[in-house]
Amino acid sequence: MEQTANVDHSLVSTISSSEEEKPPPFMMAGMTAKNFDPARYAGRWFEVASLKRGFAGQGQEDCHCTQGVYRFDEANRALQVDTFCVHGSPDGYVTGIRGKVQCTADTSLKREVAALQIEGGVSERCYLRFPTLPFIPREPYDVISTDYDSYALVSGAKDTSFVQIYSRTPNPGREFIDKYKAFLGELGYDDAAIKDTPQDCQEMSMGDLSAMMAAPGMEEMMSNTFYPPPLGLTKAVEFNPFTSIFDTLKKLVKLYFS
Questions:
Q1: Which pTM does this prediction carry?
Q2: Closest of 101, 70, 71 to residue 83, by C-alpha
Q3: Where does the record place Polar residues bias (predicted)?
Q4: Could you tell me if residue 49 is inside a domain?
Q5: pLDDT of 34 above 50
Q6: Average pLDDT in the 241-246 region?
Q7: Domain ranges, residue 178
Q8: What is the DSSP string of 202-246?
């Protein structure tokens, strides 16, 4: 049974002096990172290590070069994220999905705040959901700590079963990865089980990445709006809505782009 993620805020506050800056014009108050600024968080992040157990991690075991490109949607108070990875090897096939991170008021947290007589605003929790795949349950999304310029630590579960170490560069070095693994270990994560994510693909500029995302079929894959050509299949293909989204995307990519 996984431990519940109880983040020691005193530990988090010591890792980055940037979190002591004055509050930004718009904050996502549901994040553990103090005064979380989604506009600064936006941009490209490389996953350099992760722990992915349970449903949310299924289908990602063979991922190389996992990346997330975040855009701040001020009008909807949300972060849109395009996440993708290359399966099996640097020359494997790409799958991706588009999600949305939003923070909502949490009534259970309100009760806790009231019981403890904690002063402050409305308590919130943040979630990642996939709007075009309503059968996929929303998952918690919590930026534990970030300096916006070099690293971010992201929890994706209610317990300690899913966490990512993000870097603004694909290969920040052994010292960088080990530092944040150790820090997560202090927060209760199994740091020995946090595995490096290979970032061994040919380096791609943001311009090249944008061109790839604009390639035929990519928008349909990211938004789950496939309009496949006649395939001439000789037998039915089963898609199980209770398997992971990445497993389903693997099947779709093999069918539509092979």
A1: 0.73
A2: 70
A3: 1-17
A4: yes
A5: yes
A6: 48
A7: 43-226
A8: PP--HHHHHHHHTSTTHHHHHHT---PPP---SS-----TTS-HH
